[in-house]
């Protein structure tokens, strides 16, 4: 075999082994994804305290002064957030104390659950 044939054979063998390794490493990915889903659910269910500062129904946004949002690693602050469903804005008014859960939806921090605080 000449040097070119040996080089070609080595490249083909390396590529084949890389594909086999990738397939093998993803074999348990379904179980891995299910395990992550279990870890994410409690974080999403954890409610954060907040106070309604402003409501913009046309834009589907609410301004909240809120505590730490742990699942997003976000410190306490006042910020504008999107709401998952516009009807959430009908449940509250400026000055209300709320408990909410937020997550990233299409890259934007979005309230996915909200209720008046008791």
Strand order of the largest sheet: 1-2-3-5-4
Q: Please report which band the strand proportion falls in: under 5%, 5-15%, 15-25%, 25-35%, 35-45% or over 45%.
A: 25-35%
Give the % helix: 25-40%
Mean pLDDT: 79
Number of helices: 2
**Shape label:** rod-shaped
Q: Can you tell me the CATH topology of the largest domain? A: OB fold (Dihydrolipoamide Acetyltransferase, E2P)
Radius of gyration: 24 Å
Q: In total, how many beta strands?
A: 5
Sheet having the most strands:
5 strands, mixed, barrel
Q: Could you state the CATH homologous superfamily of the largest domain?
A: Copper binding periplasmic protein CusF
Helix/strand-derived class?
alpha+beta
Provide the number of structural domains. Answer: 2
Task: Give the CATH architecture of the largest domain.
Answer: Beta Barrel
Biased composition (Low complexity): 32-45
Signal peptide: 1-22
Keywords: Signal
Protein name: Copper-binding protein
Description:
There is one protein chain. With 118 residues, the protein is α+β, with helices and mostly antiparallel strands. It has two domains: 39 residues; 70 residues, Copper binding periplasmic protein CusF (OB fold (Dihydrolipoamide Acetyltransferase, E2P), Beta Barrel). 34% of the residues lie in helices and 34% in strands. The chain has two helices and five strands. It has a five-stranded mixed barrel with strand order 1-2-3-5-4. The longest helix has 23 residues. The protein is rod-shaped and about 80 Å long. The N and C termini lie far apart (81 Å). The relative contact order is 0.15. About 23% of the residues have low confidence.
């Amino acid at each position: 075999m000449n040097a070119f044939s040996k080089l070609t054979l080595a490249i083909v063998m390396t590529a084949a082994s890389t594909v086999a390794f990738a397939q093998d490493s993803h074999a348990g990915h379904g179980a891995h994804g299910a395990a992550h889903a279990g870890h994410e659910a409690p974080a999403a269910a954890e409610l954060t305290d907040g106070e309604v500062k402003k409501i913009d129904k046309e834009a589907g946004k609410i301004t909240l002064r809120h505590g730490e949002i742990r699942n997003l690693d976000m410190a306490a602050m006042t910020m504008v957030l999107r709401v998952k469903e516009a009807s959430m804005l009908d449940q509250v008014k400026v000055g209300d104390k709320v408990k909410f859960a937020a997550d990233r939806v299409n890259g934007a921090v979005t309230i996915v659950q909200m209720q008046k605080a008791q």
